[in-house]
Amino acid sequence: MTVIRDVTFCVPDLPQKGEFIAILGPSGCGKSTVLRLIAGLRPHHPPTEGTVLIAGGNVGPPGSDRSMVFQDYTSFDNRTVEDNVAFGLECRGVSARERRERAREWIAKVGLDVDRDARKYPGELSGGMRQRVAIARTLILSPRIILMDEPFGALDPTTRLHMQELLVQLWKEAQATVFFVTHSIEEAVYLGDRVYVFSSAPGTILREMAVPPPDRPPKDMQRDPAFLEYVYEIRDLMDTLMSSTRAGDD
What we know:
Layout: E1 20-24, H1 31-39, E2 53-54, E3 57-58, E4 66-70, H2 81-85, H3 87-91, H4 96-109, H5 114-117, H6 127-139, E5 145-149, H7 157-174, E6 177-182, H8 185-191, E7 194-198, E8 205-210, H9 218-221, H10 225-249
Parallel strand pairs: 1-6, 1-7, 4-5, 5-6
Antiparallel strand pairs: 2-3, 7-8
């Protein structure tokens, strides 16, 4: 089965000028496969042709230049919040004192209370708090490329908006290149500098759209007529896509 076909794009990876790429499309169109290929993870469907290049070279196994945040909660249940956030530093051989200092700094940056939350275990946290831990564990390593596979998909609408706003703030500070997979048109338009709209499987890029950067919280942006124009344009495209798919099935 072919999952993606003729997917070609180029994202400049400039220091302090990382781009935020949102990838949008129907279920099963290969969005997550694209992320796994960039990450150097073995996809469910290994590529039969084509290449993935980072800084001009073929992508290698997962490395410190790339980090991934998943929709599923990936914290270690037997480690505290502080130890989860510091896990990557521990793998790099960073001293215990420095690990603790930097982990507590990042716990605060993602909006958790250091005194209250640092010694908690994942089972004591809400879904939104767990994803804050996952983001802190990723960004503490200063990766050049951040891959996010529907990280807010399981969150309630209010928490999801808060997490979108937090992510924009952290990205502006880190300025890494971000690839963000989502099913939400509003989320893609709010977060992305560029939005790639994928077709149904085998996935290919139907539309590439440049979007102005967010300058307000998402709940305010989503009332803006200019913002809504982008949303409606993508929604019309996806409605047409789904209608064509259903007609083909018939």
